Amino acid sequence: MKYGNLLNTCHHEQVSSVQKAFAKDVQNLIEVSDEMGNPFKEDSTDLLVLNTKEIVPKSVVEAVSATKEKGQSMYDWYVEERLTKRSKAITGGLSHAWKLTQRWSVLRLRLLF
To answer: How confident is the model at residue 24 (pLDDT cuts 50, 70, 90)?
Structure first.
C-alpha cells in the first residue's frame, strides 16, 4: 500500500496529508490563543473550555481530578512494584483491572462533555 509517493514502511504521521492537518490544528490553536488569551495565564482556579472560556461544570472537574488522582496512584504502584521492589518484570503486561480502569476513566470523561 502506498501513501502518495511514500512506501508503506513509513509511519502514518509522515504522510503529507497528516502533516498538513497537524499544521492546521496548530494554527487554529494559535488563533484561539490570540483571540481568547493564554489559558495558562488565567488567574481563575476554574477549569475553562479553551475555545469559549466557559466554566466547566463541577461534575467534569471532579471527574478530571479523580482520573488524575487514580493515574498518579497507578503510576506510584507501577514504580514501586516494577522499579523499587522489582517484584514484577518491567516488561510484564498490565493487569486487566488496570486496563479497565483506564478505559472507564476515558469513557466517563467523554460522556461528561
So the answer is: very high
